[in-house]
Amino acid sequence: MAFKHPLFLFSILGLALFFFESLNKYDRQEITVTLSQQERLATLWETQTGYVATPEQLNSLVTNWIEEEILYQEALKLGLDDQDSIVRRRLIQKLSFIAESGPSEPADRSILQNFHQENLDRYTLPERYTFRQLYFETEAEADNALLSLKNGKDFKTLAKPSMLNSEYAYNSELEINAIFGIGFFSRLDTTRLNLWQGPLASGLGFHLIDLIALHEEEITPFENIQGQISMDYQRDREENARNNFIKELTDKYTITIELK
Hints:
By secondary structure, the protein is of the alpha+beta class. Among the domains are: 83-122 and 224-260, no CATH class; 127-216, Roll (Chitinase A, domain 3), CATH 3.10.50. The protein has helices at 6-27, 35-49, 55-77, 85-100, 109-118, 139-150, 173-180, 226-250; strands at residues 124-125, 128-136, 167-172, 196-201, 206-215, 218-219.
């Protein structure tokens, strides 16, 4: 039979090899190591080691990069990036950075002044308090000390040692609660100045408080925080750029949320 003839078998084998080689060529993906990529590798090496890469070291860096690129491309083909939360977060971070890092020039003084006026709530200090405090381990000790204070005894002779300061200046409600515990400020009578009050319980023990002064809300002048305003302005621009970028992308998608 014809298919048993050696020349016929050789032809079939040649055609098969040609076919598979054609498939391989068609599937082959080109990897180009550009000059700019080589420069980045050399710069990264110099940054990490402090030395300029030799030709041999640069060749090794390029070889390693090619190996990594091949593994990366093959991993993508296999879908190894799918449902990987770490890869997902990293890609989101990189794209967000691209969205936020558009070309921008430093804002001039008038723009920053307008930004300051439009966002005064961000630069307004809340009500703050200056006060003394005495610490006691038990409520009974605090009651006795309060009675002694009413009888004219010097508060300095009644103080018990603790990790707390004996006096605090310009502290807001938030800061007071941070020192003594959540809810402590609400138990203070802020209308009583220069009068000892308590005992007030905290997570540490019991306290007598003497409010020395109430400091009203105060807008921080532009000149005092111009640097902070400049950073806030730039941060807002970046956030707005990111939000606009996401909105434009979202408009390209049809969102469906499956219900139970």
